[in-house]
What we know:
single chain
Amino acid sequence: MTRSVAAGIVLLSLALGTATAQDPFEIQVYQYRTVPPGKWNLETHFNHVARGTREAEGTVAPSQGQTHLTFELTRGITEVFELAGYLAFARLPGEGPDFAAWRIRPRVRAPDAWNLPVGLSLSMEVAFPDDRYDTEDATLEVRPIIERAFGRLVIDLNPVIGRSLKGPGTDDGWDFEPGARVAFRVGPKVDLSVEYYGSLGPVDDFLPASEQVHQFFTGGDVWFRDNVVLNLGLGLGAASAGNRTVLKARFGWMF
């Protein structure tokens, strides 16, 4: 059954095609483990774009000065499968809170019994954003997760591809949006990390370097208990495109 679920998700992603910029609402490199069966995990993502885009793109508002709040609730269904739902909110400069999107995300991982040299999982997220925050009406993100630990050092790779399912970009195909994380355990309750997020454009023809997005976040995780974690980070853009200064926080509680 486990192999069938994993194979089904892979085949579905290939069937949809072999729109998006780096997600400003959920700034996170995924680790491969899923939520245990019968458990809930509530993550609250909060970030603020101190320096970003200054001009609207069609109906999409400039990102500079935006504040984002996202609630992500995940349920562990089996030892290797979880299902998550999101509600995303935003506040534009000088305005009140605004509903930005809702999302749903299934994820499956390779069982421990496979004894793979790396941890593997696969996430597929469908999002339905508001016009003020995305040009598309519905989007798909396919996120492979690859993890390898070397003692106290952990490396996570998320070679994400995304596309429009409904909207003006449905014929544009897949975009490549890689993410990576290097974390080092400096104490029993503290990890320090560097994260990378990119948006390189279509997988078959990358954007010119001047239009690509490259962001680096420094920060880390503080574990108050085994099931309660706080992540903090400061992000800086390494290119003129995209957001150039972002403050982010994530609070996770498993219960």
